[in-house]
Design goal:
The protein is built from 7 helices and no strands. It starts with a helix and ends with a helix. By secondary structure, it is mostly helical.
Length: 113
Amino acid sequence: MDYKTLGENVRKYRLLLGLRQEELAEKCHCSNSHIAHIENGVGKPSLEMIIIISNSLDVTVDQLLSKYYNHPEIVYLREIAQRIEKYDVEQRILVCESFGNYLDTMERFADKD
C-alpha cells in the first residue's frame, strides 16, 4: 500500500471539506497526531481506520488509496450537491435552472464547431 498517496488524499479531501486535522480526528475517534502521521505518510492505519476516515470524509476507500482516480468529476459533483443541499427548495431550484441554462449555452456553442 502506498501510504504517501493515502496521506496526500486524506489531506486533500479533508481540506475540500474545510476540516482541520483536529476535526477529522474527532470524527474518526482518534488523536490529532494519528491523523497527522497518516497525512504525512508515516502512519500505517488499519483497514478499519481507512474505512472510518473515508466515511468521515464522504469519499470512497479507492479515492483515498488511488493516486489517479478514474472519475475525478465525481468529487466535484458530490461537493456541489452538498453545497446546494444547504439552501431551501426555491434556491436549489434556481441553482439547477441556472446550471441548466449554462449547459444549454455550452451545447449551443459546441454545435457551432
